[in-house]
Amino acid sequence: MIQTVALTGATGFIGSHIVEKLLSSGFHVRALTRSPPAAGQRNGLTWVRGSLEDESALNELVYGAQVVVHCAGHVRGKNLLTFTQANVEGSLRLLNAAENSLSCKRYLFISSLAARHPELSWYAQSKVAAEQQLIENASSVSIGIFRPTAVYGPRDKELQPVFTWLLRGLLPQTGSSATQLSFLHVYDFAEAVAKWITADVHNETPYELCDGRPSGYRWSDLQEIGESIRHKPVKVLKIPLPLLKSIAMLSTQVSRLTGKEPMLTQSKIGELTHIDWSATNVMITSNIGWTPTIQLERALRDGLF
Ligand SMILES: NC(=O)c1ccc[n+]([C@@H]2O[C@H](COP(=O)([O-])OP(=O)(O)OC[C@H]3O[C@@H](n4cnc5c(N)ncnc54)[C@H](OP(=O)(O)O)[C@@H]3O)[C@@H](O)[C@H]2O)c1
Fold it and tell me: Does a structural domain hold residue 21?
């Protein structure tokens, strides 16, 4: 039987790739959108107009779906409340719709590696709170949790400028030179979601996901990768903490004037300067058989970002 997947966040960077992967794998997708969907129909895709705040839209979204993939989330916000409303309350409202649907049996929550350290930022705190409360409140629906590291690839806006500058010969470094970073290509991430659905393994323990490079990347590794692709030097530009703090203050003030969520806040600096963002795929690989195929160097060399 063809499975129907109810998906949130389909208009965003990662969610748009999940839509493509699920459709090409033969699933039917019901996707939530806050804005009018583009004209034209795609086979297997039904847009449902509404938001995480709208209970009737969520009921419509999950109608007839066996699986929920909850990818919508706030990655920017001016205070804890903004994150809590979207990432915790929105996730619980969607769980409630899934529980009431009778058809939904499984719910995949796209959390973040940041949830490993809730003390670092409001974002991290909201993701771990959502994970815990979903598990506590679920009864007929089984919960799965993905904690991806930094995801990049076509249509990404966050890391794309960093990699573009790296290939032009300049690498802005936030945090210490000893920092361990990790990355994951969005094609591999979308593949992991499809694999989770078909594997049908029930496990609430969060799965970390990364591109599988042992111990991750130091800033000097990124510099070396850039140099080997360019065949020219890459200059590392260390951004001092006081400068980061000033940019965060400015960004917060600008956001008050424009009404848009700030790019950088004092809270986000905790994540940016954290020393260990290495991750491991051991648990997800052994449970559902997913392994990543795209390492950062290849993606940068082949322009897959
Ligand atoms: N990008 C990464 O490196 C990364 C790493 C780890 C985890 N994640 C997680 O992955 C998910 C997707 O991230 P992304 O990078 O794709 O972010 P994104 O491009 O900003 O997309 C966010 C999506 O969530 C939707 N959304 C936000 N608030 C909503 C609400 N109240 N109601 C309905 N839809 C709402 C947005 O809809 P609109 O288009 O209408 O704004 C958009 O579709 C997030 O949960 C994020 O925490 C991302």
Answer: yes
CATH classification at residue 150: 3.40.50.720
Give the CA angle between residues 107, 108, 110 to the nearest 5°: 140
What's phi and psi for 102, nearest 5 deg?
Answer: 70, -30
Is ligand 1 within 6 A of the CB of residue 157?
no
The reply to whether 60 falls in a domain is: yes
Tell me: the pLDDT tens digits for 106-117?
999 999 999 999
Count of structural domains, the chain:
1
Does residue 191 form part of some domain? Answer: yes
Q: How many helices (H) and strands (E) does the chain have?
A: 12, 11
| Domain assignment of residue 198, given as a range | 4-155+183-215+278-301
Question: 184 in ligand 1 pocket by Cβ < 6 Å?
Answer: no
Cβ count near 76 (within 10 Å): 17
φ, ψ of residue 2 to 5 degrees: the values are -75, 130
Using one digit for the tens of pLDDT, what is the confidence trace for 238-289?
998 989 889 888 888 888 888 888 878 888 898 999 999 999 999 999 999 9
- Please tell me if the CB atom of residue 155 comes closer than 6 angstroms to any atom of ligand 1: no
Question: What residues are paired with 208 via a beta bridge?
Answer: 147
pLDDT given at position 248: 86
Span from the CA of 192 to the centroid of ligand 1 (angstroms): 17
Would 282 be classed as within a structural domain? yes
Which residue in 130, 62, 145, 53 sits closest to 99, CA to CA?
Answer: 62
Maximum C-alpha span of the chain: 59
Task: Output the six-digit token pair for 30.
Answer: 């019901």
- Across 129-249, the runs of DSSP E, i.e. the strands, are 142-148, 150-152, 170-174, 183-185, 207-209, 235-239
